[in-house]
Amino acid sequence: MVSMRIAIPIIGAGVIVFAFGVLFFLQGNSVVGPTSSFMYSNTKWITYGEAIAAVGMGVIVLGIVTSLRRPRS
């Protein structure tokens, strides 16, 4: 039961990081955001967004693995 209490916040943090990565990726590709933003149509932010989204996905997987782990008796 302890692993589930730890896993939920980890998964939540991963979802937030993943969402920001997708947002940064889309801004770098000129899909969303104000045109006055330094991130808008900037190829560096396409790469940064991909990396941030990948880290977020890794945190989500870590949370899921933590939730599925059985406590030792």
Give an account of the 3D structure:
The chain is an all-alpha fold and 73 residues long. The chain has one domain. The protein has two helices and no strands. The protein has helices at residues 2-28, 43-68. Helix 1 runs antiparallel to helix 2. The protein is rod-shaped.
What structural keywords apply?
single chain, 73 residues, mainly alpha, 0% strand
Count of discrete domains: 1
Number of strands: 0
Given helix and strand content, the structural type is mainly alpha
Q: Secondary-structure element sequence?
A: HH
| C-alpha geometry | rod-shaped
> Main beta sheet: strand number and arrangement?
none
The percent of residues in helical segments reads: over 70%
User: Radius of gyration over alpha carbons?
Assistant: 16 Å
As a percent range, the share of strand residues is under 5%
What is the end-to-end distance? 13 Å
Count every helix, treating DSSP H or I runs of 4 or more residues as helices: 2
Detail the poorly predicted runs: none
Average pLDDT works out at 92
List strands and helices in order, with pairings:
Layout (H helix, E strand, L loop, with lengths): L1 H27 L14 H26 L5
Brief write-up:
This protein has 73 residues and is mostly helical.
